[in-house]
Design a protein that fits this description.
Helices cover 49% and strands 9% of the residues. It has 29 helices and 20 strands. The chain has a 6-stranded mixed sheet. The chain has a 4-stranded mixed sheet with strand order 3-11-14-15. Strand 12 and strand 13 form a beta hairpin.
Length: 758
């Protein structure tokens, strides 16, 4: 499909001007409208209040069609204080990727009020401990904004059919359930009215222009908006236009941290195939439409949007098609940081698919994340999803797996800082980096420890207890959500919510899980083996002396630092002694997580990816026994500590597959950095395929490749303006290098850069 690699003049113009729609003065509009509705409708249920706020906002929201537009609509930016307890700066500006934190005091008030708890209850004591820990990044706590909406479901039915579902459901329910359905119905009706506004605007512009080219595009937009507001999409363009509107409306309602698109190539392909076969669409036209969609995604400064490509169909056959490759072409051509691409890899991968995959890796943007279907499907089944739905999985956010349109799993709700637990143990519950006390769960002290086995068992007991605390607090938050922050629009476009009369926050979807994620796995394993070697085998120092060395950031302890940093075994080198520690801890972590159930009737799932938190948590953690200095990044996800995988990528892969990756039911990341020269020879590319397939055969789940040199990264760090378009892989997502904080940049630079596969 080489003919689809051309960037048209129209697309180039839209790309160059894609952020011009951003109007800073409109940011407060949404929040103000919701506040107005809450004040004017105090007797309405919370669900209906949120729906009325959403509908009113769509009435007032400015719309935009420029003469050069291929698709109608544009991403909108706003604050989200009203609809979620987030602490926002008065001058919030999403263009600058600000750090956004939850409003802990507001959360605590919401939980107490919604659940009828007292401040001195055991539940609130747990929550207050958890909330305090999030301030020092002992824990990570975020929101429920990671979702795979039912876009395929709505494209199949059309919005008017959803309205009919809502009207029929109203007749079946009473009380709270009727309010829930009413709220969803209000949102779907508002969505249709919003699209009609665009049809009217396109008609106005048609009347005002005589340019034939402009007329052609405006007529297509007008006709499509009319079609999808009155029925279901009929053409490929209709489907893409409706898809964008559904996505834009999601951004209007939800916290847009990660609203993913699911298996877009699968649900768009029937429209594409029909139009190609009847001669109403060319490959070049389809490519331009998708390029325009990519531009819309890339201008959404607040979100990470993931598209899942390929994999198997319901019969287990390869499901790669022309739309798969067109999506990959759009990313190759435009080289944005958004949307993210995830590629489902099958045993019988077609040769054309492999060639397209290689071409995309060669761009150096870090796309795509490559997921092995067999292991991913096994992981989904382990999380409680039957095989017929497990096969349909899409990627949410970074690497989290979900069933599109039928699952509300709070995939990024919590993360536990494993390395910091060691520091708390050595310092009697004191966080020496942040000068905060966190009482340990076991009551033990270093003075009680005489063997490494005792220390190791102690660490495992603390890890288990802290993990249990996280899960209990996640469930408190979960119970609060439907009472304080329902999501009526999102619920309306998910399968089953109308039928069940439930908002998705209270279990309206088929699958209703929550996650606890791990951070600093290799850093922890390397630290524990360092304690074993330095304290109990070589007897270089006592535990208390090791503690003093860490507090001093190894200043004055250079010999010890050399030993633990350069001599002790490191995860990622196919060394069973340290690899087995990582495996044992992950199994304990997974066992602990999986024993919990959610209030929505779902399971808890385990994640072993770190997003950017291995840098954030590292910035707020003292030196660790593996030789890492205080304030620097932890190991990324399941990879080795940066620069410590000295035996080549095969050894790294062998260490990683020892971890029983099908237990990472919320996903995992393995990032491998390759020299740009590596991807330029056929021999190396063949070796790369062999590495990927061997990794998958041994139980691998996900792998991704960064193709960028240390020299380029260092130059970009020194002169960001010169490298403003440099996109790099972080951990499950890609981002503009200049947008990352220095700690994350340093971590990426420090990763081992492989020039060969051995």
């Amino acid at each position: 499909m080489k003919e689809a690699l051309k960037v048209t003049e129209k697309i180039q113009y839209l790309s160059d001007t894609r952020e011009e729609a951003f109007k800073r003065e409109e940011i407060p509009l949404r929040d103000a409208i919701y506040e107005e509705i809450f004040a004017s409708c105090p007797n309405e249920s919370k669900n209906v209040q949120f729906a009325l706020g959403f509908a009113k906002f769509l009435e007032k929201k400015s719309i935009r069609i420029i003469k050069q537009d291929v698709l109608a609509g544009y991403p909108y930016h706003y604050g989200y204080n009203t609809t979620f307890p987030i602490a926002m700066e008065e001058d919030f500006d999403p263009a600058y990727r600000p750090d956004i934190e939850l409003d802990g005091e507001r959360e605590a008030r919401d939980i107490m009020a919604a659940l009828g708890l007292t401040a001195d209850s055991k539940e609130m004591q747990d929550w207050n401990y958890f909330a305090k820990g999030t301030l020092t990044w002992l824990f990570k706590h975020w929101h429920s904004g990671h979702i795979l909406p039912g876009y395929d479901y709505v494209l199949e039915l059309g919005l008017p059919a959803l309205v009919k579902k809502g009207e029929e459901a109203l007749e079946k329910y009473e009380g709270h359930q009727k309010d829930v359905i009413q709220s969803m119905l209000i949102c779907d009706q508002a969505a249709i009215k919003y699209i009609k506004r665009y049809a009217a605007r396109a008609a106005e512009l048609l009347q005002a222009t005589e340019n034939a080219e402009e007329k052609k595009y405006l007529e297509r937009i007008y006709n499509s908006c009319q079609t999808i507001s009155e029925g279901k999409p009929e053409t490929f363009f209709d489907a893409v236009q409706l898809l964008w509107f559904l996505h834009e409306l999601m951004i209007c309602e939800s916290i847009p941290s990660s609203i993913s698109l699911g298996r877009m190539d699968q649900y768009l392909y029937p429209f594409y195939k029909k139009d190609i076969e009847n001669g109403t669409l060319t490959v070049e036209e389809a490519a331009e439409i998708l390029d325009a969609l990519w531009i819309k995604f890339s201008a959404n400064l607040q979100a990470y949007q993931n598209i899942t490509l390929g994999g198997t169909d319901e019969n287990g056959n390869p499901a790669y098609n022309e739309v798969t490759y067109l999506c990959m072409h759009s990313t190759r051509k435009l080289r944005y940081d958004q949307p993210s691409l995830s590629f489902r890899y099958t045993d019988d991968l077609p040769e054309e698919s492999w060639e397209e995959l290689v071409a995309l890796i060669q761009t150096g943007t870090g796309f795509p994340g490559i997921f092995y279907d067999k292991t991913c499907i096994d992981a989904r089944i382990r999380s409680g999803v039957p095989k017929e739905d497990a096969i349909r999985y899409g990627i949410v956010g970074c690497v989290e797996m979900g069933t599109p349109g039928e699952e509300f799993t709070m995939v990024e709700i919590s993360r536990l800082n494993w390395p910091k637990l060691i520091g708390l143990m050595l310092n009697d519950g004191k966080d020496v980096w942040n000068h905060t006390e966190y009482p340990l769960m076991t009551g033990k002290r270093c003075e009680d420890i005489h063997t490494f086995a005792e220390f190791y068992d102690w660490y495992k007991a603390e890890l288990k207890a802290f993990t249990e605390l996280v899960a209990r607090c996640v469930n408190l938050f979960d119970r609060m959500l439907p009472k304080c922050y329902p999501l009526p629009y999102l619920s309306s476009i998910m399968r089953g919510c109308y039928e069940r009369g439930k908002d998705l926050t209270e279990g309206g979807t088929k699958y209703n899980n929550s996650a606890v994620n791990a951070c600093g796995i290799a850093t922890t394993a390397d630290s524990l083996i360092a304690i074993k070697k330095a304290v109990f085998e070589k007897k270089l120092v006592t535990l208390s002396e090791f503690r003093d060395a860490l507090t001093a950031d190894f200043k004055g302890y250079e010999k010890l630092h050399h030993f633990v940093s350069d001599i002790c075994p490191k995860f990622g080198n196919d060394n069973p002694e340290v690899d087995n520690i990582a495996k044992d801890l992950l199994n304990l972590f997974s066992d602990t997580v999986e024993q919990f159930k959610t209030p929505r009737g779902g399971n808890f799932v385990t994640g072993i990816y770190s997003v950017e938190d291995h840098a954030h948590m590292g910035m707020r953690t003292e030196a660790t026994p593996d030789g890492r200095l205080g304030g620097t990044a932890f190991s990324n996800s399941v990879a080795s500590v940066q620069g410590k995988d000295t035996h080549g990528p095969t050894a790294l892969v062998n260490s990683v597959v020892s971890l029983e990756l099908n237990r990472s039911t919320n996903g995992m990341v393995l990032d491998i950095k390759l020299s740009p020269q590596f991807m330029k020879t056929k021999q190396h590319i063949m070796a790369l395929r062999a590495l990927i397939e061997t990794y998958f055969e041994e139980g691998g789940l996900e792998i991704q490749f960064s193709v960028v040199s240390r020299e380029t990264l260092e130059a970009a760090q020194a002169d960001p303006k010169k490298y403003k378009n440099l996109v790099v892989r972080v951990s499950g997502f890609s981002a503009y290098f200049h947008s990352l904080q220095k700690a994350t940049q340093d971590e990426i630079i420090a990763r081992t850069e492989y020039e060969k596969i051995s």
